[in-house]
Structures are given as C-alpha cells and as structure tokens.
Amino acid sequence: MFEIVRYSPQKADEWNAFIAASKNGTFLFDRHYMDYHSHRFQDHSLMFYFSGRLLAILPAHIEGDTCYTHKGLTYGGLLMSPQLTVVQTIMLFRQLNDYLRGLGLHRVVYKCIPWIYHRMSAEEDLYALYHECKARIIARDYSTNIFLNAGLRWERVRRRGVARARQAGLHVERSESYATFWQILSDNLGGKYGIKPVHTLQEIELLHSRFPENIVLYQAVHDDEVLGGVVLYLTSQVVHAQYSSATPEGKKLGAIDLIYEQIMHHDFLDHPYFDFGRSTENADGSGLNETLVFQKEGFGARGLCYDIYQWEL
Description:
By secondary structure, this protein is α+β, with helices and mostly antiparallel strands. 34% of the residues lie in helices and 29% in strands.
C-alpha cells in the first residue's frame, strides 16, 4: 500500500531531488518553476511513498470538483522513480482514485508527458489509465519535433532564409537581456492574434534567473539591432522552442531561419530531439494553424501528439 502525502513547502527539497532523479521529470516540475504562478492555482500535488520510499509524485491542483494535472504546465502527469513497477503503478492509481473520492471530487483531467521528454521508458501510467481508471482521451494537441540525428532536409524556402540572413550580415548570439525580444514577441502576438505571451517579461526574467542553464535566449542581430529571437527550454533530451518571433525586417531577412540553423546544426547536437511545440489555437488541440505548422515542417519537423485524458471518479 502507498502512503499518499499532500505536498507542502516544507517538502520542496525532497520534491526537487526526486524530480532530478526521476525517469520522466523535467525542470518544469521543480518547485522553483512551478511555484512562480502558485497564486493562480489551488495546489494539491501529491507524493506517493511505498515502504517509506518516495516512488512517485503528481503535480496537481483542484478546481471545483475536478483534479487537474496540471493546467499551469505544458505537460504533466505522474512522475516516476526508475524503481516504480507497473503493478505498483496500477495500485497507485487505485489508491489515488479512492483518495480523490474522499475529497468529494468527481473527475480527473490528466495531461501526459510526451515520450520524447522521458530519460527512460515511462508509460506505466498510460497502461493504468486505460485498465484501472477507464480513462478516455478528451483532447489531442499537435506538436512538431525533429530527431536531430536523423532530421529531414530543410525545405528550400528555409535554406534560402539562412543564405539571405548571412548575405545581409546578420549574426546570432546568446543574450541575457530579454526586454527587447519580449517587445518584439508582444507586438507580434498582439497584432496578429490579440493575445499576450504566456509569461510576462518579469516572469521569464525570474525563471531564467532560477534556471539559467535551462532557459536561454538566442537573438539575430544586425548593426546592434535585434531583429528576432528564440527562447529555448532545455532538458536532458529535448531542445524546446518556447517562444520565437521576429520584427518585420527580421522576417524579410530570414532572422529566425538563421537562429534555428545555429541551434540545430551547431550548438545542441548532443540532444536527441528538437520540439517546436504546439501549432494549434484552442485548448483541446483543434484549430490547427496551417501557416505556422508549414513553417515548422519546412525545418524537417513532423508530428507528435500531446494527449489529455479524463475519467470519472
């Protein structure tokens, strides 16, 4: 039997140490990352001990009569020790359901961690969701990614963008200053979609200060003017493009193409995967942005689904 313990700030060090040693955790689950927006969610994360050993944790929060895992994160779900077995995982979900029923909850909405982020095989939860929880997929988002050691040849339009940027004298550099890029990003998102970046400038600067090796900014510069940038989230397996944007002049000169050429072909050859992230406009994964996904496919990216499950308690 598992002992289920609700997370409290006093357990932050134990939580973070577990994330670092887990087989499918990334820095997004570190409490120094998760808690930057703790005021937006009623946290109810759980820790699962078996014979006194911490074998799994579940980032979660509660809204109404539903447990979510977790709305504030791109992906979520059960984070597992390499020692957790599939039989134990089935038992864990059986006990979890009993625990949540005891809180008066009626359902669970469960985000999965895409397999490219796993450090080793870690889909015991998916087996338990189907057979123990009778869960069903309620949303399927669409992302694009590249196997960096076996990627497709870039489309001609992308290769021409790189050549155009080089001919114009653009160069790529890493930067610690996010303000200029954030203005470019905000102008583009506001003008085209009427939305703001998920993170404010202050939030991304805070997160970068906490995870300087995991959150990095690349910029394309011409005569000391920033024409475009890409913010990367780096994990042990994946180089993820969290934000990408360019000025009108940067788009014309191929600034983003030049940045991606530096990232994919030079700086991160030791990472197996590059993930462009979602290319959809709605929370359930509908509304495929065909222009955006066409651009990503031009770099050789192909499809990866981010699934969300639900089951009744």
